[in-house]
Structures are given as C-alpha cells and as structure tokens.
Amino acid sequence: MPAPDVTVRGALSQSEGEAVWAAVATVYAGFLGGDAGAVDAVLAHDVTIWNHDHVPLMQGTADLDAVRAARVTDPAPGPAVAALAPHTVLVDAHGDVAWCRHLLDVTTADGSTSTARVTDVLRRDGERWTIVHHHEQEIPPHGLP
Fold first, then answer.
1. SnoaL-like domain spans which residues (predicted)?
2. To the nearest whole percent, how much of the chain has pLDDT over 90?
C-alpha cells in the first residue's frame, strides 16, 4: 500500500501528524494481511466503529470480534478486498485528540473499485496514538448529494 501525502493542520507538527496517520495505516495493513492483532494494537478497548457494511455501531473490541467471527461463518457475498489505496489525508488535533480524514479507494479481487470517505478520531496515549472512533461511508458511484 503506497504511503499517501499527509496534510497536517493546527497544533501538530508534520511528524506528529504522520504518526497519527501511521496508526490509521496500521489498520489497513493488518486488514489486508489478515492480522487482527495488528489492528487491535492501535484500537482503544472501548473503540466505536461505524463500518460501511455493518449497520449497528460496534462498541468496543468485543463487538468487533463478534463481527469478525460472524464473517468467518457467514462471509459477505462478492469478491474479497484485494487492495486499499488511501489518499487526500488531512490530520489535525486539539490537545491529545486528533482527527484523521481521508478517502480510501478499494479494489476487489474481480477488479471492481469503490471509494469510501473515512474519519478516525485518535487519543494520544503517551508516545502513541490510539483509535477511539472509526467511521467509514462508501460513496455511491453516482456520488453523494
């Protein structure tokens, strides 16, 4: 997955903004590599998640684990995700809370593509950033109003 340019605003330095992005990028690399442990390492235990293909709000890693387990026994129809290409990354912060917004191009095994807009909210925990909220929305092919 190529590293996108990261635009940083506000009180963060460029290197701090890139550290925020690195936490978010860990989720994508873990997802593509099938490494739930890598994903979980950057999630707060009480993380909330709005996922484009799972309607109820996931509240905590236990909810995420339940969704993961359900996907094993009842996989989603259609081709698997083959590649993720994040771009247009914007990061800023207030105190120990950062927001990372970006677009995510998704390519499936059959070559079809879609784009989602994503927002992650992170909290600084010592020297690292932890995701406390993830929200993704797939953009319909005809766009959003």
1. 22-135
2. 81
